[in-house]
Amino acid sequence: MAMAHPQVFLFACAIALLASSSMFSAEVTLLSILFMYIILLSFFSPYIYIYVQNHTISRLCGRQVISAVNGSLPGPTLHVREGDTLVVHVFNKLPYDLSIHWHGVFQLLSGWADGPEFATQCAIRPGNSYTYRFNLTGQEGTLWWHAHVSWLRATVHGALIIRPKRGRSYPFPKPYREVPILLGEWWNANVVDVENEGLTSGAAPNNSNAYTINGQPGDLYPCSSNKTYKLIVKQGKTYLLRIINAALNNQLFFKIANHNMKVVAVDAAYTNPYITDVVVVAPGQTTDVLLTANQAPASYYMAANPYVSVAGVPFDNTTTTGIIVYEGAKPSTPKMPILQAFNDTPTAHKFFTNLTGLVTGPFWVPPPRQVDEHMFITIGLGLIACGKTGNNATCGGPNGQRFGASMNNASFQLPTKMSMLEAFFNNVKGIYTTDFPNQPPLIFDYTNPNNSFNPSIIMTTKSTKVKKLKYNATVEIVMQNTALIGVENHPIHLHGFNFHVLAQGFGNYNPTIDKNKFNLFNPQERNTIAVPVGGWAVVRFRANNPGVWLMHCHLDVHLPWGLATAFVVENGRTPSTKLPPPPQDLPKC
Ligand SMILES: *[C@@H]1O[C@H](CO)[C@@H](O)[C@H](O)[C@H]1NC(C)=O
Ligand SMILES: *[C@@H]1O[C@H](CO)[C@@H](O)[C@H](O)[C@H]1NC(C)=O
Ligand SMILES: *[C@@H]1O[C@H](CO)[C@@H](O)[C@H](O)[C@H]1NC(C)=O
Ligand SMILES: *[C@@H]1O[C@H](CO)[C@@H](O)[C@H](O)[C@H]1NC(C)=O
Ligand SMILES: *[C@@H]1O[C@H](CO)[C@@H](O)[C@H](O)[C@H]1NC(C)=O
Ligand SMILES: *[C@@H]1O[C@H](CO)[C@@H](O)[C@H](O)[C@H]1NC(C)=O
Ligand SMILES: *[C@@H]1O[C@H](CO)[C@@H](O)[C@H](O)[C@H]1NC(C)=O
Ligand SMILES: *[C@@H]1O[C@H](CO)[C@@H](O)[C@H](O)[C@H]1NC(C)=O
Ligand SMILES: *[C@@H]1O[C@H](CO)[C@@H](O)[C@H](O)[C@H]1NC(C)=O
Ligand SMILES: *[C@@H]1O[C@H](CO)[C@@H](O)[C@H](O)[C@H]1NC(C)=O
Ligand SMILES: *[C@@H]1O[C@H](CO)[C@@H](O)[C@H](O)[C@H]1NC(C)=O
């Protein structure tokens, strides 16, 4: 059954209602219709329609067909309030399979709306649609939505801004204006082709050609003088910049010439105010900062360049810029901030570790004190056997093999016949196995570079191993980066939950020493943790949401290589702690 567009429907109702009354003058009637339309519209505003389709745009001296929502890059910003119900009808007019993930949304009892293909749903086939329904409860701040199939999220993404309920305020002074800043990554190519080329050869896929701010590369790139994001500010006013790293494969430094920023939230969780001249943001993460226009009226560049923790590999070393123009300033060449060096790990580490959670803020929950499940998970790269037989062909990765990646030496492979959530709900065997280990199968000197190409441990194999958790279990995970192939800072994203980040450090995690570093008082809360390069991070969360929740590296190059696993959280005993049945229109495989 096709549902009529509710806005059109309501407008028609409003007209019908008013047409039946004859006591209004024409003007009053028109005004009343408009007024009523606006009231009804705001009442029903959580109904959102998005169309994902081909869109041709000019960037960097060329024209490129991209997949885009409603013909815009980035896609539309969705504005909601805490406590709202969101109903999003997604129409797939692409030639590709599609699904949309609501990054950072808790999806309490609405796992069917989480989005990752083969995890919580099968893809929306070309020409089909799916309606995502979920509540935004117990979280406020900046989140975002993006495609969760292949590399489509490069251009299929947008901001999801959750404001406090009406009548409630931020735990910081009300900003004059709020501005989403989406940092992106651009290829002069079809990103699906770029990904497939890499996966076919086993080599690393092509690097991007540019970074972008709100879809624009900025005037340091060729043919881009009028492809530069501009923000006009009033001197003396304070702006809330909602910074989202929507890039596929790169962490970014973000700076504004002559201006400090005050961090007030990350990943839609409030932080203690933290003043900095540089924000570091990994793919998947968001950072809300207050920017006060307290400089002389002039133009100032905002700029983002990559933080590259891995040594000796080629990367996109370009810089994207936008311009902050003070109202009334004479036209001038914008001042440029001093960029961080690409390998400036000390700056990244300082930023990432200095943030603390706002214990007096709304929705603060202290970290669990008691731990039911202790997990130690190695994360990093490895090699997958080339797999070509007969003709002795070699693959494009190191040693003639394929690039791989794993957690506890299990290189994650999504199922293809059915989503894991359907298998969970219907008790279907053979889609995943519940033997993801709590410890790595082999204890070795994880971060010793001498192990980078140790042939006895570098190979890994594909499987679909998940970790089963009892409802409401508390979980502690030590994430330990390995030196296999090379050390690298991996942003690990957990679906369905925020975790508290208790501690982070370099080298091999040592429980006797490092347990003393745990911050159990005001740890930062996140959905994506950038695990220090050649180091470790400790997080805790409470598994109070039944369903199937991916945990994976948010560098899209590493996800198909296998840097992932999933938690299967069992139902609780009461109806209000059980996953409801799937919606009728859940896409079929
Ligand atoms: C997307 O475009 C459709 C059709 O123009 C429109 O009805 C819808 O409101 C747009 N969605 C958003 C979120 O802007
Ligand atoms: C959309 O773009 C893809 C990739 O460029 C192309 O193969 C396809 O034919 C296009 N579809 C339409 C309807 O234009
Ligand atoms: C959202 O919350 C409302 C009110 O509590 C509830 O009736 C509804 O089932 C929830 N929807 C989803 C998708 O969880
Ligand atoms: C990747 O880069 C190589 C070398 O520049 C180029 O030949 C190839 O076409 C690129 N692949 C894609 C899918 O754009
Ligand atoms: C600026 O944009 C216009 C319209 O998109 C285009 O015709 C023009 O060539 C662009 N100018 C430069 C310098 O890129
Ligand atoms: C970026 O890399 C290219 C190619 O290696 C090099 O020529 C260029 O100097 C680098 N630019 C920066 C800013 O490091
Ligand atoms: C901030 O980071 C620096 C460098 O890592 C460290 O010395 C300092 O103690 C940190 N401050 C806080 C409040 O965490
Ligand atoms: C190719 O593979 C066959 C069968 O595994 C093996 O006997 C042969 O020595 C290989 N040739 C080369 C050049 O490696
Ligand atoms: C790496 O191996 C070399 C040669 O065996 C050795 O001298 C060095 O100490 C090793 N490095 C580490 C960190 O173990
Ligand atoms: C990972 O498993 C493979 C076999 O699948 C084994 O050869 C390798 O030594 C293991 N490596 C580690 C680090 O456990
Ligand atoms: C989950 O555990 C917390 C802490 O022990 C407890 O307060 C809460 O009631 C539990 N929830 C359920 C539904 O059992």
Automatic annotation (TrEMBL):
Cofactor detail note = Binds 4 Cu cations per monomer.
Regions crossing the membrane: 35-52
- According to its record, what are the GO cellular component terms? apoplast
For this chain, one GO molecular function annotation is:
copper ion binding
According to its UniProt record, which cofactors does this protein need?
Answer: Cu cation
Please state where this protein is localized: Secreted, Extracellular space, Apoplast
Q: Which UniProt keywords apply?
A: Apoplast, Copper, Glycoprotein, Lignin degradation, Membrane, Metal-binding, Oxidoreductase, Repeat, Secreted, Signal, Transmembrane, Transmembrane helix
One of the Pfam families matching this protein, by short name: Cu-oxidase_3
The EC number on file is 1.10.3.2
Which reaction is the catalytic activity of this chain? 4 hydroquinone + O2 = 4 benzosemiquinone + 2 H2O
Tell me yes or no: is Ribosomal protein among this UniProt entry's keywords.
Answer: no
Highest taxon above the source species: Eukaryota
Q: Which residues form the signal peptide?
A: 1-20
Q: CDD domains from the entry? A: CuRO_1_LCC_plant (cd13849), CuRO_2_LCC_plant (cd13875), CuRO_3_LCC_plant (cd13897)
The family database entries (PANTHER family) matched by this protein are listed as: LACCASE-7, MULTI-COPPER OXIDASE
Q: Which family does it belong to?
A: Belongs to the multicopper oxidase family.
Function field:
Lignin degradation and detoxification of lignin-derived products.
What name appears for this protein in its UniProt entry?
Laccase
Q: Which organism is it from?
A: Solanum verrucosum
Its taxonomic path starts at:
Eukaryota, Viridiplantae, Streptophyta, Embryophyta, Tracheophyta
